[in-house]
Amino acid sequence: MPVMRPLAHVVFALCVLALAGCAIPARMDVSPAKTPDSAGLVDIRTLVPDMDLDIRYAGRNNFTGAIVDGYGAPRCYLLEPAAKAIQRAETALRSQGYRLRIFDCYRPARAVRAFVAWANSPDESTKARFYPALDKRALLGEYISPTSGHSRGATIDLTLMRCGAPGSCAPLDMGTDFDFFDTLANTDSPRVTPGQRANRDRLRDAMRQAGLRNYPMEWWHFTLDPEPAPKTFFDVPIE
Description:
Blueprint: H1 6-18, E1 29-30, H2 36-39, E2 41-43, E3 52-53, E4 77-79, H3 80-94, E5 98-104, H4 109-119, H5 127-130, H6 139-142, E6 155-163, E7 169-171, H7 194-210, E8 212-214, E9 221-224, E10 232-233
Parallel strand pairs: 1-10, 3-5
Antiparallel strand pairs: 2-4, 5-6, 6-7, 6-9, 8-9
Helix pairs in contact: 3-7
């Protein structure tokens, strides 16, 4: 899920409170790139051919309940430095009997716009699973914003799996599903069990060692530190 810049947060909140259509002022550089190659985006499976992918927005198993605009295929693209960091993390984890499962990588800007449109729609078919304690309108600003760090190509959403026999890996219990809109998803939430907290800590430590920092509001969300292109957003469709 996207993280909002302070100024954009204020402006967007005012737009929501006014219940009126309101243009968000220009605040980002959108790359003219039309293809992954021209954007410098690398398919993670060129580095890790058997990387476990569960790209949620390329199917209906996500908070919108639909395939999201821009996700024409379940692929994971990242800028090369971020992709290599994930490769390092995966290699280290495999030696310890673990693997990563990836939910989302680079996210086209058009997909972020689709999230905002969904948040403004009356559809609440996914409420029980993804935001049971919140009014849908409360998702705007706090959880869903008009820009996302994922669109800069160095942010990734993932979880950790424990592996037994070859080819037999199962996701660890993290206390919530991916994209659960609640403070229970905060990485250091005091509401999770000791075992769930240990699993979150193991994932965060593995990512930190590979050079990625966690977004404290979401246990699954990590960004390469420093970002390779902190001011450039991409809108290349995933195909």
